Amino acid sequence: MFHVKRHTTQPRPGWQQTVEAQGLIYPLTRYPDDSLRPYWDESAYYSFSLPEVEALEETVEELHTMCLAAAAHIVEHRRFADLGIEDGRLADLVAESWHRRAELPSLYGRFDLRYDGTGPAKMLEYNADTPTSLVEAAGPQWFWMEERFPGADQWNSLHERLVDAWRKQAGLLPPGAPVHFAHSAGDELGEDLMTVAYLEETARQAGLETVAIPVEDIGWDSLTGRFVDQRLRFMRACFKLYPWEWLATDAFGPHVLDTLDNGGGTGTTLWIEPAWKMLLSNKALLAVLWELYPGHPNLLPAYLDGPRELADGPGYVAKPLLGREGAGVTVHRPGAAPDVRDEPCCYQELAPLPDFGGNRVVLGAWVVEDEAAGLGIRESAGLVTDEYARFLPHVIL
Q1: DSSP string of 60-95?
Q2: What integer pLDDT is reported at residue 2 of this predicted model?
Q3: What Rg value do the Cα atoms of the chain yield, rounded?
Q4: How distant, in Å, are the alpha carbons of 42, 118, 287, 294 from that of 5?
Q5: What's the pLDDT tens digit per position in 251-261?
Q6: 273 prior amide bond cis, ω within 30
Q7: DSSP string for residues in 337-359
Q8: 0.85 cut: is pTM over it?
Q9: How far apart are CA 128 and CA 130, in angstroms?
Q10: What confidence tens digit (pLDDT) does each residue in 109-121 have?
């Protein structure tokens, strides 16, 4: 059996216009020198064998199950302070959300994995609240494969799984009310906008009525104590690509908590993803997992109180508990003096991303509901996958 390989190839003529028409309106990245370079990069692709992908799917679903067990542990032992959740009321609402999770719609998440084909995949983190790079994984790379490798396959059932998830969970939504889809108007690239627009399209295909709205346009009706949209309609259900830690602490955060529908019919607004997803999108989860499953082949040692033995051994990465696209992540090489940061961090063993011809690769493995559903691959020049990473398609050969 062969393992993951990187292949160079010739981009299709007019590739930029092609992927933009497929919803990827941010195919280029502006670098600090003001140059524009491809974010969608089809000058190369990755190939996998079918047994390899099947093994990765099993790994992802096992990791997801372990993460749910870690979330249960955090709630049972009231370890919210380890996640930086100091507000007792918010902690209580997250716990209630967890206990009522069977009544709450929950859609998707993305594992970031280190994998080079020669050993077990290692979990780097899990974003199950506001993951992006979904549009390019679900659509453009599938169409690329159909054009370049007709008859081949891809680890990619994202679109069908998302539509099916909305259809299956429709009964959990408030009857007779549309689902609002909210993104931040501060998103200059258009990535959040298109992610939300794509998810709205999957909901429409599942037969749901939808309404798009910028988060900044959500209003508060003080007379009725309800969130309303631009047309002053009550917002009974809202999918938001807006982190819970912002939603709960913004100026209108108290209103969010006052009117939170946790599945018991006690509030007025049902937010998707639900509040319990805060337990899975916090880097403290990595340390809790290592406590519960020490030595697990798909985990890296991780701690909250400092790097411990990692400073003397393999080195470590310090990750802020919250953050996107590598923001605030620092790399500490083996033998470097321990550096315990002032802000709460997770200290995870340094596992340098595999190097394919000078390209550092991370696998983004998608979960829809509780099942592995697809793969997106990003490359970067350095050890931290940041906003200058490139997205490359893949194929199963």
Answers
A1: HHHHHHHHHHHHHHHHHTT-GGGGT---HHHHHHHH
A2: 64
A3: 21
A4: 15, 11, 31, 31
A5: 999 999 999 99
A6: yes
A7: PP---SS-EEEEE--PPPEETTE
A8: yes
A9: 6
A10: 999 999 999 999 9
